[in-house]
């Protein structure tokens, strides 16, 4: 049981609005493509040869 695409997008907007109102940083961990456009940045963590790297994309 989970949210459909529109539900994921609506939940993301709600979380972003709440974080903005409360002046909070918000980190969402998701494998859903629908959520990418809801936030200002995407952080991608990649493991290569035993080392993690973080890529920040707008």
Short description:
The chain is of the alpha+beta class. 31% of the residues lie in helices and 24% in strands.
What report would you give on this structure?
With 58 residues, this protein is an alpha+beta fold. The chain has one domain (5-57). Helix content is 31%, strand content 24%. It has one helix at residues 5-22; strands at residues 42-48, 51-57. It has a two-stranded antiparallel ribbon with strand order 1-2. A hairpin with a 2-residue loop joins β1 (42-48) and β2. The longest helix is centred in the N-terminal third of the chain and has 18 residues, at 5-22. The protein is globular and about 35 Å long.
List keywords for this structure.
alpha+beta; 2 strands; 31% helix; 24% strand; globular
Strand and helix layout:
Elements: H1 5-22, E1 42-48, E2 51-57
Antiparallel strand pairs: 1-2
Poorly predicted regions: none
Order of helices and strands: HEE
- The dominant shape is globular
The averaged pLDDT comes out at: 89
